[in-house]
């Protein structure tokens, strides 16, 4: 049985920890309400989420990359603060822009596997 060299183990552990930390810090510090209130920012985020291209805004790109997982797990890896931000911003998005909300869900959940549980979460 081959053993992992200590330096590779430390590198692997550091990378895993930094990715987890970056995920948590980024979404705790993102002001979802301010994005929803700023039409230019929100339209940029929406364009990013619906596009098949890479987004020019790195924060929006990270949200885009994580959207399938967030929708599938209903923010399962989120902190409590992140879940509250996700819930509040999604409820507002759905209320204010229902057509765009449906477009995003259709893109990230084309088979409607997760819409029911997501709606239950949003209504809880």
UniProtKB/TrEMBL annotation:
Report the Pfam families cross-referenced here: OS-D
Is this entry keyworded Signal?
A: yes
User: Has keyword Transmembrane?
Assistant: no
Concerning SUPFAM superfamilies, the annotation shows: Chemosensory protein Csp2
Q: What keywords is this UniProt entry annotated with?
A: Signal
**InterPro entries recorded:** A10/PebIII, OS_D_A10/PebIII_sf
Which Gene3D superfamilies does the entry mention? Insect odorant-binding protein A10/Ejaculatory bulb-specific protein 3
Signal peptide range: 1-22
Q: What is this protein called?
A: Odorant-binding protein A10
Q: Which organism is it from?
A: Cacopsylla melanoneura
